[in-house]
């Protein structure tokens, strides 16, 4: 069976639903420290558990005969800056808990997400290579960079089959992101459709790598399904679909809502965004496990409008 830790979050929710579609509802156990969406809770097993509590996670693994764990619990970049020690504890303890279960052969395979936040101001900004300078400035980025080193270490030293992707900003409509720097690209759609305007906390020319949720889920499942020998990078793979600025996204929104009004009031999150790449070279993911993306910016925009509309109707 499969265990998703952090299943109530933005990516965890949709990942769990997709895994249930592929493997059957009973085979995919969702867990989180808080309850999730109605769809998540009602479609299969759900357990409240703290990712930092080794005994609780070990118990779940034993009880449900878990072989594969997706560790999606984390504190994101913006929230992490407000409570640095808490972010560090959550992001590292949860990873060690899962890596140690794999080291002790209690589980067979682990997915753990990294992020473009591992990069920093000294990293080449355009087409950032897989292997390059990494001097992250946020607690979140430091935790992901450190986590990457530990994944690589557990693979080499203990043969742990851990696989990882450096997600860009993920855009989706089912569950809101929690406390990231790329959240503007989700908020803009909800605000546009409900109020016709949005004030962005990033400046109009801030270009960041982004991806539609369906592609992020596809990448996650693809890398986990690939044969072990194909996974040559055991820290984390660069992954890319598109890059855009708030201004370009606002133009896309205007295709659907010509009256849409965008304003800009950069806050502390601007300083974080300024340290991140504007585009990513993901040639190794494409070569090693055949990664390819489906959604570009206009397809993403159309999908967001359709998705949010159907949610508003059903409310
Ligand atoms: C954040 N979305 O903004 C996350 C992230 C791409 C960066 O991992 O913190």
Automatic annotation (TrEMBL):
InterPro entries assigned: Epimerase_deHydtase (IPR001509), NAD(P)-bd_dom_sf (IPR036291), NAD(P)_epim/dehydratase (IPR051225)
One Pfam entry name: Epimerase
Domain NAD-dependent epimerase/dehydratase, residue spans: 2-232
UniProt record similarity statement: Belongs to the NAD(P)-dependent epimerase/dehydratase family.
Protein name as annotated: NAD-dependent epimerase/dehydratase family protein
């Amino acid at each position: 069976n499969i265990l998703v830790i952090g299943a109530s979050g933005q990516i965890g929710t949709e990942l769990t639903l997709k895994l249930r579609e592929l493997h059957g509802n009973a085979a995919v156990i969702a867990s989180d420290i808080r309850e999730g969406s109605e769809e998540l809770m009602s479609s299969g097993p759900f357990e409240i558990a703290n990712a930092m509590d080794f005994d609780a996670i070990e118990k779940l693994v034993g009880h449900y005969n878990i072989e594969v764990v997706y560790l999606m619990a984390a504190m994101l970049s913006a929230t992490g800056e407000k409570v640095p020690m808490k972010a560090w504890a959550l992001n590292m303890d949860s990873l060690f808990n899962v890596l140690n279960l794999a080291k002790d052969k209690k589980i067979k395979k682990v997915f753990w997400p990294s992020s473009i936040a591992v990069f920093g101001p000294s990293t080449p900004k355009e087409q950032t290579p897989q292997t390059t300078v990494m001097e992250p400035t946020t607690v979140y980025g430091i935790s992901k960079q450190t986590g990457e080193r530990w994944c690589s270490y557990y693979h080499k030293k203990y043969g742990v089959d851990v696989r990882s992707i450096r997600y860009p900003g993920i855009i989706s409509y089912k569950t809101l992101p929690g406390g990231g720097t790329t959240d503007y690209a989700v908020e803009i759609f909800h605000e546009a459709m409900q109020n016709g305007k949005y004030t962005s906390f990033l400046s109009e020319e801030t270009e960041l790598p982004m991806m539609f949720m369906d592609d992020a889920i596809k990448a996650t499942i693809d890398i986990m399904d690939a044969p072990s020998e194909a996974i040559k990078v055991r820290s984390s793979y660069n992954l890319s679909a598109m890059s855009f600025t708030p201004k370009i996204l606002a133009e896309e929104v205007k295709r659907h809502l010509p009256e849409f009004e965008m304003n800009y009031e950069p806050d502390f999150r601007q300083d974080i965004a300024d340290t991140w790449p504007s585009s990513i070279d993901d040639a190794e993911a494409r070569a090693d496990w055949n990664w390819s993306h489906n959604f570009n910016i206009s397809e993403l925009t159309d999908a967001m409008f359709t998705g949010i509309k159907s949610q508003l109707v059903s409310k």
